[in-house]
Amino acid sequence: DTGVSQNPRHKITKRGQNVTFRCDPISEHNRLYWYRQTLGQGPEFLTYFQNEAQLEKSRLLSDRFSAERPKGSFSTLEIQRTEQGDSAMYLCASSQGLAGGSSYEQYFGPGTRLTVT
Amino acid sequence: EDKVVQSPLSLVVHEGDTVTLNCSYEVTNFRSLLWYKQEKKAPTFLFMLTSSGIEKKSGRLSSILDKKELSSILNITATQTGDSAIYLCAVDRGGATNKLIFGTGTLLAVQP
Hints:
Chain A is an all-beta fold.
């Protein structure tokens, strides 16, 4: 399977615990995005990487959230001291991002559904 | 504030019907508009539209962008139960990140 993959697919945690999610983008894609989606809403942008550089973070990304893409390949998203309001689907997307045409299309992974109890 | 608005919020049709989903946007910068289909999983890419008036077509689905009216429509002809999903519209504002601004989606239910 050469699509975007995410692990784990589901995570249930207790409030106050830390969680980490992983995203493996399509191999030739240098752009990687994290989005969060809650029930009845469209995905909301969280953060963006071009290769290993994190170039933009949303105001939605509080200090408890941190993301990395250490070698410009896979990425991790960590949430510290989880709160019930963090319960959502966390989606990762990647794109090629070369000049012109269809290379800006973003392809999404299956998501990690987080439930904070 | 940038926003993308989709209508209707939900729609119930019978197999064989034709449906039209609407998307309008107000953004400071515009590069392209994208349509995604979302079932009980991640959004799957349908179309990317950058030029006004040029229809993109894939099987029974088609879409067109009107940059003057800041809107797009997604048409589905001869609907099937497998078309039941949430259809998401998103705008790529371009710039350095090409982050997407999504609407809340249209929930389509196709009854047999």
